[in-house]
Prior knowledge:
Order of helices and strands: EHHEEEHEEEEHEEEEEEHHEEH
Low-confidence stretches: none
Helix content: 10-25%
CATH topology of the largest domain: Pseudouridine synthase
Amino acid sequence: MQSQRIDREDDGIRLDRWFKRHYPGLTHGRLEKLLRTGQVRLDGKRAKAGDRLAEGQTLRVPPQAEAATPPARETVAGSLEEYVLHMDPSVIVLNKPPGLATQGGSGLARHVDGMLDSLMFGKKQRPRLVHRLDRDTSGVLVVARTVPAAAALAKSLAQRDAAKTYWALTRGVPARPRGTVKAALAKEGGHGPHGRDERMAVSKADEAQRAITDYFVLGQAGQEFAWVAAKPVTGRTHQIRVHLASLGTPIVGDFKYGGSEVRGRGAVADKLHLHARSIDIAHPDGGRLKVVAPLPEHMRRAWELFGFDPDDRRDVFAKAKR
């Protein structure tokens, strides 16, 4: 028999959920038999599937559970440690580089989800993604270190208790220096179901999803380029990219929605110039989590070329209310 101490991240969960989390190879039927025969003990007493666990309790785990083999999961070689912006007991925030996919897919050799083992830092649980960024979009990516943290962060995102700001370099300058784009989006026919093949379009069809983006022009280089801050009120696929293109100002390097007009020139690279600059979200342990991500190198070079401030920390949406 092996005794295990209940950790903080498992405080409050049901005993059967604890076994599913730590011994996923143990079937529900087998666990029920171990419970009926008294082989599972909580602080020395017979345990039941619905017992709530508390931090510091001792759980006796029988050899049958120890022998259960966890199912294989996809892992990818490489480390994400160099991209860590913030880490505490419940949350890790990464500055995802451009070109690295958040999740796996056809033909993807590297992705964040497959590299999360490199962020365990001594914890028993593998970190969990709670949202995603497009493959070519850089910036703030939040990862939960515990199951309760993942649930809390997911709830905050679902209830829109999270303010995310993106920076973009657009080809052309929006006609209005600030505004809101309200244009429903739907998947465009004739393209693949996911990844780089997926394409969205402004649509009035019944299946189109409501989409709203606030934007603010922070700077401009003549009438050719603009530094735009965008705040998605809703969270649709490619929302900021499609909405800025709908204004006649597509993002530089976004060939999917801007065509050849968005090609970089000189010091402006032929890469997507869209960066998840910051996030302000309820922290699972109380208070607010606020993190700002530095620009990737290709965007920093463009900012320096046009005289924009890459370290600007103004919150231009602070007074906006909906």
